[in-house]
Amino acid sequence: MSPADVLSVVTLIALVMLGLALLISVVRIIIGPTLGDRVLALDLMTVIAMGFVGTIAIRTGLMLYLDIAIALALLGFLATVAFARYILSRAASRGDAP
């Protein structure tokens, strides 16, 4: 088995595992009893998407995809901060402790 064949098999296994993790994350978004669970699952989906992009970059050999992963990481961080601020403002308006 050549190194290219091993790399192809390993990246395929990684893509399948990331797909399963994405499905589990979607289930947590749908079932999640609290808003915090849903926000955490959305953040997990961002990390999984970065894994997808990184795996595709390795599989194709195009390092341009890594720039996309970095941009996705920044966007995911900003979205998580925005959701956290929303949860805090929602708790403050209701008089709940965060």
Automatic annotation (TrEMBL):
NCBIfam families: PRK12599.1-4. The chain crosses the membrane at residues 6-27, 39-58, 64-88. It is found in: Cell membrane. InterPro entries: MrpF/PhaF-like. The lineage of its organism: Bacteria, Pseudomonadati, Pseudomonadota, Alphaproteobacteria, Hyphomicrobiales. This is Cation:proton antiporter. GO terms for cellular component: plasma membrane. The keyword ATP-binding does not apply. It comes from Devosia ginsengisoli. One of its GO terms (molecular function) is sodium:proton antiporter activity. Keywords: Cell membrane, Membrane, Transmembrane, Transmembrane helix, Transport. It is a multi-pass membrane protein. It comes from the Bacteria. Belongs to the CPA3 antiporters (TC 2.A.63) subunit F family.
